[in-house]
Design goal:
heterodimer, A: alpha/beta, Rossmann fold, 4-stranded parallel beta sheet, 9 strands, B: TIM Barrel, 6-stranded parallel beta sheet, 5-stranded mixed beta sheet
């Protein structure tokens, strides 16, 4: 039991078996969240620090509650901008936290590879809570948990992801995790937001939203950052929502029992019409609960590995 | 002072001895006349190498490298002549800075240092520099290396004005509007979530410079070519008679962007490591003569500037102490080119582009030479480098072609301790 690696850096580093172990553990953790007494002792006497170099509401709160529900001492550090602007190097900051007896450091950073860079230097386990455009593994795990509660297997399932593929660490982590478990992933977005060589990650590049969504078992929308208009990645919100949104008509092309996901926060009326966000097929609110469950599972399994060593 | 180096394989001849008298290569004389007899132990003797593109960091970057340490490092690589780029602090865009560099280089005495002056003031690509006065102070070419000259109109004026002083123009080709990333754009950058620098960014400016050179009938030299498209365009231009020359660096024929996968910043440089297809095209260009020279782009950086996030890390790697061994191991031992051709690419050819008159073992010329052990494999160890910095990706690589001895003007500048 437990994970092979000291750290959770990305879906790239996890095997299919490890992913399934996390998902199975998360199902159990979900029972804790829904119980009257949300308390376990799995992290009692342990310390967990969140170190966020980027703004976050849900991911950070989700990790914080996950660690508190399991009884850890936890502390939070948030700092905007890069480590360079602050004057202290990222490595010095991380080592300082490490030397205070921290067991797990949960880090979000605006630079891809930042957790990979610090992890080998630290005794603490590092959990990647999003690094640049690279990965956001616990988001992919919570998305997969949401699917796993509805599928008995990922094998052969069609997952459609639409939106800003280029900048999305959610897409990368989902593509890696889902393809490892045998799902078929299709992606679609404006070509200005489609990274070169994404097909080499084992995903299919669709021709249109309709082509992406057709016969899907699950459909995922992505947040588009509105300021990307200023970099000429799309001309206007009106044009984006007209051509790239997941409308009720588009969603109707998916399988009848397909469900709709979104990592949040959502721009209502841009990537999803509000009616779609709130429709019966939407599981967006449940994803939030699953986020806490998955993070509890990750913290639990990393700590189990630490305890066994 | 008379020296005989014996028991060597002299490149391009059947001789096993080299004679040096008063700092020049000499006709044979009797051993009894020699002040010093050096046993080369079967090593290959070649003309002292010429690096037409390096960074010595002084003035302004002495915490990374000084002229003294940078030239000692070059001597360890078999170099006797090096050309430092002008992106120092202050920028080498005036005769005073150039004179200072030359003075320090003479004091160090490790290499002949031929500075390259800035093409534009403060290398900002806007106003042409005092090329004539800098030439009087000792520059051999102009370049804004590290920063491309983005404005075609300024590039034209740089080429025209430089040609009045017979100064070659060396351009770092990159259209910055396309390259906001920190590694090659491709499947690897996509997979690890780093913004990419497309080959098109390099190719577009190479195309522009070829067009300008052809239109103006003025030579242009393309620095550190890394792309298949760049090699193809330069090959085609040369066939048409355009006066374009180019260099590449050992990292572009020994490594690819796949090595960036673990965010190791010792694989971060400008231009970035490219795909396998590009790497093979660079080798093809070296074989068919499209590539005129191999330079190092030796770029020392302090540990703190590399021990950080990939996007934050500075560009560039050390190259002086590995260039020959990489060329020998990856081009000659693999039968891509001959040893003679490798040595030409690393000495006479760059010397000819910059009109330095180096790269020869002819009698009467300055005795600049290097001895390399071609027979024994060695493991490159970054902790034994003479550079002040350690930013090399080649630590632990098993190579052939270790430097045994370097002599500049008859004086030993590097000697491997036996």
């Amino acid at each position: 039991m437990g994970l092979k690696s000291k750290d959770l850096l990305g879906m790239k580093q996890l095997t299919a078996e490890e992913i399934m172990e996390i998902l199975d553990t998360a199902k159990t953790m979900k029972l804790v969240i829904s119980s009257a007494n949300k308390k376990t002792s799995h992290l009692q006497g342990k310390s967990v620090v969140t170190l966020f170099y980027e703004n976050s509401t849900r991911t950070r709160l989700s990790f914080e509650l996950a660690s508190k529900y399991m009884g850890s001492a936890s502390a939070n550090i948030s700092t905007s901008g890069s480590s360079v602007n602050k004057g202290e190097s990222l490595l010095d900051t991380a080592r300082t936290i490490d030397m205070m007896g921290t067991d797990i450091i949960i880090m979000r950073h605006n630079h891809s590879g930042a957790p990979h860079f610090i992890a080998p230097h630290l005794k603490a386990s590092v959990v990647n809570a999003g690094d640049g455009m690279n990965e956001h593994p616990t988001q992919a795990l919570l998305d997969m948990l949401t699917m796993y509660e509805r599928f008995d297997t990922f094998e052969g399932k069609n997952i459609a992801i639409c939106g800003d593929i280029y900048h999305s660490r959610v897409v990368r982590s989902n593509a890696i995790g889902l393809t490892k478990l045998g799902a078929n992933v299709s992606v679609y977005g404006p070509k200005t937001m489609m990274p070169v060589g994404i097909e080499k990650m084992g995903v299919r590049i669709a021709d249109s939203v309709a082509d992406c969504v057709r016969d899907a078992d699950a459909v995922m929308g992505l947040r588009v950052q509105l300021e990307r208009q200023q970099k000429s990645l799309f001309p206007s919100i009106a044009e984006y929502s007209h051509f790239y949104a997941i409308t009720p008509e588009m969603l109707a092309l998916a399988k009848p029992d397909a469900f709709l996901m979104h990592p949040g926060p959502c721009n209502h009326g841009v990537e999803l019409p509000t009616a779609v966000y709130d429709c019966d097929q939407s599981v967006i609110n449940e994803q939030v609960t699953n986020g806490v469950a998955v993070r509890m599972a990750v913290l639990y399994l990393l700590m189990a590995r630490r305890n066994n060593l | 002072m008379k020296t005989i180096i014996k028991n060597i394989k002299v490149l391009g001849s059947s001789e096993d001895k080299i004679y040096i008298a008063e700092g020049k290569f000499s006709a044979a004389f009797d051993e009894s006349e020699a002040d010093e007899i050096i046993d080369g132990k079967g090593a290959a003797a070649v003309p002292g190498l010429v690096d037409m593109h390096c960074h010595l960091r002084e003035p302004g970057g002495e915490y990374k490298e000084t002229i003294a340490t940078g030239t000692a490092s070059a001597a360890k690589g078999g170099y006797t002549s090096v050309c430092p780029m002008p992106n120092t602090n202050p920028v080498a865009d005036n005769a005073a800075v150039i004179s200072g560099i030359i003075k320090k280089a003479k004091e160090a005495g490790n290499c002949r240092v031929y500075p390259i002056g800035a093409a534009t003031k403060d290398i900002n690509g806007e106003l042409i520099s005092e090329m004539g006065l800098m030439k009087e102070a000792g520059i051999v070419a102009v370049s804004d290396d590290g920063k491309p000259i983005k404005n075609a109109g300024i590039m034209r004026k740089v080429m025209e004005y430089a040609s009045d002083f017979d100064l070659p123009v060396l351009n770092h080709c990159e259209d910055k509007s396309l390259s906001e990333g920190s590694m090659n754009e491709g499947e690897v950058s996509t997979s690890i979530g780093l913004r990419g620098i497309p080959t098109a960014a390099e190719d577009i400016m190479i195309a522009r410079d070829i067009i300008l050179s052809e239109y103006l009938d003025i030579p242009v030299h393309i620095c550190h070519v890394s792309t298949k498209g760049g090699i193809r365009m330069i090959r085609e231009a040369k066939a048409r008679g355009v006066k374009v020359t180019c260099e590449t660096c050992p990292h572009y024929f020994t490594m690819t962007d796949k090595l960036c996968e673990n965010y190791d910043t010792n694989y971060k440089m400008h231009p970035p490591l490219r795909s396998e297809e590009d790497r093979l095209a660079v080798i093809e260009g070296i074989k068919d003569g499209t590539v005129d020279a191999i330079a190092t782009d030796n770029a020392p950086h302090h540990q703190d500037e590399k021990d950080c996030e990939f996007q934050v890390a500075l560009n560039g790697i050390l190259g002086s102490e590995t260039a020959f061994a990489l060329g020998y191991t990856y081009l000659v031992k693999t039968n891509e080119i001959s040893l003679d051709r490798l040595v030409e690419l690393m000495s006479k050819a760059p010397s000819d582009i910059l009109k330095l008159g180096r790269g020869t073992l002819d009698i009467g010329e300055d005795a600049d030479l290097a001895l390399f052990d071609l027979d024994h494999e060695f493991t490159f160890d970054k902790n034994k480098m003479l550079s002040k910095s350690r930013n090399t990706p080649y630590d632990g690589w098993k190579l052939y072609g270790e430097t045994i001895l370097t002599i500049m003007g008859g004086k030993i500048t590097y000697e491997k301790l036996q």
